[in-house]
Design a protein that fits this description.
By secondary structure, this protein is of the alpha/beta class. The chain has one domain: 3-Layer(aba) Sandwich (Rossmann fold). Helices cover about 40% and strands about 25% of the residues. The protein contains 10 helices and 11 strands. A hairpin with a 2-residue loop joins β5 and β6. The radius of gyration is 18 Å and the shape is globular. The N and C termini lie far apart (about 40 Å). The structure holds adenosine-5'-diphosphate (ADP) and magnesium ion (MG).
Length: about 250
Amino acid sequence: MGTQALLETQNLSKRFGGLTAVHRVSLRLEPGEIRGVIGPNGSGKTTLVNLLSGLYDPTEGMIFFGGERIDRLRPNLRTARGMIRTFQIPKLFRHMTVLENMMVPALADSQQAHKTSIEEVEEKAWNLLRFVKLDHLARAQAADLSGGQAMLLQIARGFMIEPLKLYLMDEPFAGVNPVIKEVIMESILTMNREQGVTFLVVSHEMPTIRRLCQKISVMHEGAIIAEGGIEEVANDPLVIEAYLGS
Ligand SMILES: Nc1ncnc2c1ncn2[C@@H]1O[C@H](COP(=O)(O)OP(=O)(O)O)[C@@H](O)[C@H]1O
Ligand SMILES: [Mg+2]
């Protein structure tokens, strides 16, 4: 008997008309791991994140989170159970300040708002802004941030969620400068080590994935075609063919 997975999918599929974007994916994340997900463009990585986070209903299959089925729960109810995600294009409240953006999720979640005062929420927001080195921009409008800063804010905002168990990140390093990339990597590693947060990180960037993840899953045409350590997966003929063939 193994331990219980934090997240498990069984034969998860998503079709759009005749196109199968995700095909019978059975994925298992252990509590405390940082899993990398790679795959060529169009291989279904974002669709998988959309299914896990509840943006899409699966065509087939099941999703379990902490042993409980969640595949019919709305995204906000998944967040209430400790799952949050980032988008490839950050979704921010552009006409609010950075600090206000940080505070919205905690105040919008009635359960969390019930337990915490606005002062506590604001203090946590400041702490996290310092943690990701955005505190000097706390009073700036979100609309005025660079792409990398907006990604950082989006990521930091997810850390406001209590409890936070699983963080899904879709291409968090895309279009981000090396300095901010380093901050994102450090924040993932620190939250994992100190708070036990589990991560699923979709990224093309092998050096980054290599530093963050012990195990990666490779997608191709909607399916997971390989899983394992980075060297193992990089030498897998199916993976080489998926990348060279496309
Ligand atoms: N909402 C949608 N409607 C129709 N097709 C979609 C939709 N979302 C994704 N797809 C298609 O599903 C496939 C996988 O896309 P996606 O999950 O975005 O891949 P990746 O993130 O790996 O680049 C692509 O062929 C894409 O065009
Ligand atoms: Mg994508």
